[in-house]
């Protein structure tokens, strides 16, 4: 069984940043990632608030970061972790391919898209129902699509869809957006229509999305609108199953509780990035990853 000082589970911005720090401080480290490196970061169409870049796509920043990580730290993509167990103060990590031993663990498992849980959503998934504008948006150029949500992601993705030639309308369940002011202004500038106080009650279609059933929450009026696509961006939920099984303490929403050095309630277990909740920002994820790696280093020296 291969043995490492630190194993990092999850290679989004937090896990990759932890990998850079862990590798450069000389700790033997492995990063395990169930999909391609990047996590939800791959879906960010454009970022304007990451220092050093006036504007950069999530995918480009991940590619750059990955190159930097690989200089010091191995990264196993598409190697899903199946279980993590305590073993006399260290850990046994079982993946779909192998088994590893680690003295310290960093959970940077991130979060996944929340669903609407309405009829037709799962049936028409990939046939007009989408959760990632960057990935699927180009298939809908020139078509009528709706973006559901009122947060930063929904606003950014609606702007992205408009820019690539989709006829996009935003649907939000309240009468004001949660998205930051500058994004609200961009929505106005781009003349993106917003349907307020409205939820999607059903996605209809035989083979592909054809109609959305909408309900205005103020008037209770139900309407049916023709649609070729629906993009759902209504927040996310933490991917916490492995941590939970290990006994890592979670808050009431399922996010891992850490101290300011990213330590959890279990010695030599740390968490970083979206899995810790709070401000889900790229720069915050990277900072937490760096802090987790430094705290792990400090603890392993003792
Ligand atoms: P979010 O901020 O949690 O917003 C989710 C939106 O979906 C809210 O407007 C919410 O409505 C709506 N919603 C939730 N459940 C719904 C349902 N069942 N039906 C209809 N609408 C529903 O999520 P997010 O936009 O995905 O962002 C996640 C995190 O990443 C946030 O912390 C965000 O700030 C961060 N982020 C930051 C940037 C950036 O560039 N700064 C970009 C993207 C994401 P209500 O408003 O009524 O609750």
From TrEMBL:
<keyword id="KW-0560">Oxidoreductase</keyword>
<dbReference type="GO" id="GO:0005737">
    <property type="term" value="C:cytoplasm"/>
</dbReference>
<dbReference type="InterPro" id="IPR050097">
    <property type="entry name" value="Ferredoxin-NADP_redctase_2"/>
</dbReference>
<protein>
    <submittedName>
        <fullName>Thioredoxin-disulfide reductase</fullName>
        <ecNumber>1.8.1.9</ecNumber>
    </submittedName>
</protein>
<keyword id="KW-0274">FAD</keyword>
<dbReference type="GO" id="GO:0004791">
    <property type="term" value="F:thioredoxin-disulfide reductase (NADPH) activity"/>
</dbReference>
<dbReference type="InterPro" id="IPR036188">
    <property type="entry name" value="FAD/NAD-bd_sf"/>
</dbReference>
<feature type="domain" description="FAD/NAD(P)-binding">
    <location>
        <begin position="4"/>
        <end position="289"/>
    </location>
</feature>
<dbReference type="GO" id="GO:0019430">
    <property type="term" value="P:removal of superoxide radicals"/>
</dbReference>
<dbReference type="Pfam" id="PF07992">
    <property type="entry name" value="Pyr_redox_2"/>
</dbReference>
<keyword id="KW-0285">Flavoprotein</keyword>
<keyword id="KW-1015">Disulfide bond</keyword>
<keyword id="KW-0676">Redox-active center</keyword>
<dbReference type="InterPro" id="IPR023753">
    <property type="entry name" value="FAD/NAD-binding_dom"/>
</dbReference>
<dbReference type="InterPro" id="IPR008255">
    <property type="entry name" value="Pyr_nucl-diS_OxRdtase_2_AS"/>
</dbReference>
<dbReference type="InterPro" id="IPR005982">
    <property type="entry name" value="Thioredox_Rdtase"/>
</dbReference>
């Amino acid at each position: 069984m291969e043995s490492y000082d630190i194993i990092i589970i999850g290679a989004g911005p937090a896990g990759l940043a932890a990998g850079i720090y862990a590798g450069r401080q000389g700790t033997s480290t492995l990063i395990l990632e169930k999909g391609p490196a990047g996590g939800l970061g791959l879906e960010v169409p454009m970022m304007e608030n990451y220092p050093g870049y006036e504007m950069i796509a999530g995918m480009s920043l991940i590619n750059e970061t990955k190159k930097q990580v690989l200089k010091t730290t191995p990264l196993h993509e598409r190697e899903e972790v199946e279980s993590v167990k305590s073993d006399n103060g260290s850990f046994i990590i079982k993946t779909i391919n192998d088994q590893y031993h680690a003295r310290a663990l960093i959970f940077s498992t991130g979060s996944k898209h929340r669903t609407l849980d309405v009829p037709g959503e799962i049936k028409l998934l990939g046939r007009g129902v989408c959760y990632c504008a960057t990935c699927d948006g180009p298939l809908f150029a020139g078509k009528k699509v709706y973006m559901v949500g009122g947060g930063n992601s929904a606003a950014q993705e609606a702007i992205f869809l408009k820019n690539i030639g989709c006829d996009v309308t935003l649907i939000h369940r309240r009468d004001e957006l949660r998205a930051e002011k500058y994004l609200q202004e961009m929505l106005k500038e781009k003349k993106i229509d917003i349907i307020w106080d409205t939820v999607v009650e059903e996605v209809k279609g035989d083979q592909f999305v054809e109609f959305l059933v909408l309900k205005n929450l103020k008037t209770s009026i139900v309407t049916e609108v023709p649609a070729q696509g629906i993009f759902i961006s209504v927040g996310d939920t933490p991917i916490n199953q492995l941590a939970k099984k290990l006994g890592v303490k979670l808050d009431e929403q399922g996010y891992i509780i850490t101290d300011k050095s990213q330590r959890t309630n279990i010695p030599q277990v740390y968490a970083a990035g979206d899995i810790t909740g709070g401000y889900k920002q790229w720069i915050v994820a990277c900072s937490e990853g760096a802090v987790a790696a430094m705290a792990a280093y400090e603890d392993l020296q003792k």
